[in-house]
Amino acid sequence: MVLIGDSGVGKSNLLSRFTRNEFNLDSKSTIGVEFATRSIQVDNKTIKAQIWDTAGQERYRAITSAYYRGAVGALLVYDISKNITYENVTRWLKELRDHADSNIVIMLVGNKSDLRHLRAVPTDDAKNFAAENHLSFIETSALDATNVELAFQNILTEIYNIVSTKSFAEEDGKKFDPREGGTNITLSQEGPKGESKGCC
Amino acid sequence: MRSPAETKLRWEETFKHGPRISDLQRAIKFNGQESPCVAGLRSLCWKGFLLFPDASAEEWPQLLRQLRGSYDALCEQHLKYIRHPEQLATLSFDPLADDPDSPWITVRKDEAIRAEIQQDVSRLPDDPFYHREVIQNMILDILFLYCKLNPSAGGYRQGMHELLAPIVYVVAQDSVNAKEFSIDGLLDPIITELLDSSHVEHDSFALFSKVMDRAGAFYEVEQNTIVEKSKYIHEVALLKVDQELANHLRNIEILPQIFLIRWIRLLFGREFPFEQTMVLWDAIFAFDPNLEMIDLICVAMLLRIRWTLLEADYSVALQLLLKYPAPPPPHGPHTFVDDAVYLQNHFDAAGGVALIAKYSGRLPAAASVTATTTSTPSRSSTPSFQGFGSLRQRTLGARSPLSSTTKLLQQPGGVEAILRGAAKNVIEKSEKLGINDAVRDAVGEIRRNMQGLQEARNLPRINRSLFSDHPLAVSMLERRNRQLATMLEESITSLKQLVASDFEGDKQKQLETVEVATAKIQYVKACLEDSTLDLPEEEPPTLATLSISTHPEIRSPTVALDITPVVVASSAAEEARSRLSSPASSDRNKQKQTPPPAPPPESEPPPSVLQTPATSPTPKERPNGPIPTRSTLAQSSFAWMLEPDTTISARSPPSRPLSSSGKKKHNPSREKNAFLFGEVVPSDGIAGERTVSPDEIFGLQPIRKG
């Protein structure tokens, strides 16, 4: 799974909140990519999510565009207090449509919901946009941890459901069996870890 | 800001080892905490290494004045309206006009650039120094000016700010209030001028620009330099010194750019604590101001944690590489530069084994098998330090003459005599052919080259009796004989062909053939006379050898390295490698006395002659051996760019429980994964099989800028 979005919207802090329950107000800019994993329970199955945190700077898109081709899920993050980061969602979406797998599950995430007094992007606007574009939508705050767990849980569940449904359909009802020890869901499309690892 | 007394003390500390750059280099190399960068004035040392490498200390103030003057001019040109927006109003331009020449438009664009930079500058590391307003502005201005001056570089890139910030910190830390101190006569005017606190910004800009002359390429996006560089580090450099580790990283599908982007772009700034990083930078700027050894520093870092990496699966390895474990003292991060220098001079498996053994006391599996075999009777069933230790004991006698000259290990010794003979023969034969004039120069060149090698040739040999009491020695000698026979056969064949052609055709080419064949015959003769002589490497002379010659000043510090392990390890590694390589080249069981022969003068051997001892180094060529290239475009991740459908059709079925056999050797998913992090395919589409160009290796040429 990949975290994408403009520089400074809080991708790294969403990741650290989800994987380590940490938040750092002075977190440094991501250079290149970072990587973290966390296992969660979905439907009594353990899913080990590999999450890639990308640098938000536009010029990195040459690198990340190729990179998120392999992802099965994407959190497209904007900052609710900065309209420009919301405007750029369209561009990020286009990048995903152009380069990512067509079945990729995308969730639009309005981060920094704690900054209520600075809100620049109305929740309804984003909700409508998400609906039009068939995206899930949630507002989060990595700072106070609101909805972070829920966001990841939702998208991972969605991915799991798609994958396991396909598994039933295409393997004659053979029970999909996520494996223990880090290799849980196999997805056929190429990914940062391709067939051998994880689900995201 | 320091007191005048402390500054004075540090000034003296800085130059107590001598006034020259080479004195500073030596002092940094050998003085640890006493290093002029630590006990003295680090900023001054950096200025010396980066800005005035060829100037004497007396010239520094003058040169610095020039740099400062040009920075002032740049500020006037690019920052005028940003620093003084009120002046815009005095202009006759309409602020709302769309005139592209309008300074209003320029300022608006500039403000956007600055906002982008500011976003990162405000996210600099926690140190309160970086978050002072004046420092934030200074860093912003410098980065902004750099971007304005280098539009072709694509503007500001995340990471540049963390290269610049430490430079500003170091310069500011050493700075003194020039006006105050010089008036009071507290400090020498030269000191106050060089460390003038009102020029921290100017000097930081100069240092940063110099670093970015080379580091700029690491940020370049269009050519994807960083991905190619990462690939080179993994698939060429690491493979050469530690094949086992390179293969393991490939097998667990670690793509090197994942961690190398940050390592390299920040010059390791996030991998180590700040003070340690600064000591590392001291060493880099002192010995590698052009950042040509960055690749080998990365390799050295990988070697240092190779045992942990070898046991790691994908996730563990990634965590390890993205959060590099602190190297325990006294071998702090700066020792990676020592290792890189060492690897530069020993760019092969033996060099890798030596470094691995040096820091872990363990020998890689392949090498330790030989070590334990040869160190009878204390044979150990597991790869252990014991076998290595006993070998070390036995070769200790050979250590002193060796450690007195690194040349012995770097340069051909035995080959010298052969080539000298070859040169003589060439003259004799070419006179018969009537073409001696054409080649006399070339032969003279051979002779001149040989002069410098004479000494190494005459040095006492390492004790070779190691092998004589072992049955292995017999089979090794047999293999050696076979190889010598092959060489003779080749020479005879090429001479026969020449005779058959009745000396028609290109005389120069014929001469080359004769020259090479003769050299080979002479070489075989010498090898037969002296069984301790090594046979030539299959590989062309290493690329490192080339760059060594361009950096004689860097070479000297390596004298201090303990080379004993190399002597031991090379035999082990050679043996290990020989078992992997073809039979014809397998006989390299002896200590590495004669590394690859020197390049021939002015000529390349004809292609028909294989395995010539005189092979011109071809920088375009990759080292031999099983390099895990993502070989063809069709196999590579780029296949989708050729035919989008192929990858899709290959996806079958869409989901399936994973099996551990996913980690097979040529895992297709590795290829599929290879596009990760933007292996953007060059327009000519040969990314899968690209060759290594010299400027990517060790700075044979300046690194290309995008």
TrEMBL record, chain A:
Top-rank lineage group of the source organism: Eukaryota
Segments of this protein annotated with the region Disordered: 173-200
Stored PROSITE patterns: RAB (PS51419), RAS (PS51421), RHO (PS51420)
Main location: Golgi
GO BP terms, alphabetized: endosomal transport; exocytosis
Entry annotated with the keyword Cytoplasm: no
SMART domains linked: RAB, RAN, RAS, RHO
Family indicated by similarity: Belongs to the small GTPase superfamily. Rab family.
Designated name of the protein: Ras family-domain-containing protein
Species, as recorded: Apiosordaria backusii
Organism lineage: Eukaryota, Fungi, Dikarya, Ascomycota, Pezizomycotina
UniProtKB/TrEMBL annotation, chain B:
Start-end of Pro residues biased regions: 594-608
Entry keyword Transferase: no
Region Disordered: start-end pairs: 574-676
GO terms of molecular function: GTPase activator activity
Keyword Chaperone tagged: no
Listed name of the protein: Rab-GTPase-TBC domain-containing protein
Biased composition (Polar residues): 609-618, 629-638
UniProt KW keywords: GTPase activation
Compositional bias (Low complexity): 574-586, 649-661
Record domain Rab-GAP TBC: where: 36-288
Organism from which the protein derives: Apiosordaria backusii
Domain of life: Eukaryota
